[in-house]
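[audit] Reproducing an earlier prediction to check determinism. Same input, same settings, fresh worker. If the tokens differ from the archived copy the diff job will pick it up downstream; this log only records the rerun itself.
[audit] input (155 residues):
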Amino acid sequence: APLARYRSDDPPADAAAAAAASDRADAAANDNVRPRFAGRLVVLVDRGTQGPAEVLATVLRQRADATLVGEQTFGHAGRQTLIALSNGGRLLLTDAFYAGPDGTPLHEPLEPDERVRIFDQLQLGDDDTVDPVLDRAIELLRDDASAGDALDRAA
């Protein structure tokens, strides 16, 4: 079963319904898929996350229960074609869009699960830069590991 769908024959509004119908047909195959990584997955995103990176972030969020941390993404996961015009001009045509595994069109920015403002909190130290997004991601992973350790001790 495909992890993300590429739709060139439907406008973005129809892509969700078409992909959702196709996903129902793939459900039996997907029931047998088991993740190989059992830990928590955190994906860092920001305004520079675009195109294929947004597709990957969506697939990881929907299929691997990944947590997106950072800022809203750029919001353009589509295919564009540059067409030369007879008058010497050019036309940039978006002729296809992607949809996530659940059929969600990916032509809008992704909102992170954990919003962290990058530039408002960026602090320069003497030796290195403090990265609030990375710090929050590490905090989430440590919290998850601590909860797992507590469950292991209780068992």
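[audit] rerun output stored. Observation attached for the diff report: Strands lie at 5-7, 42-45, 67-70, 78-84, 90-99, 114-115, 123-124, 129-130.
[audit] end
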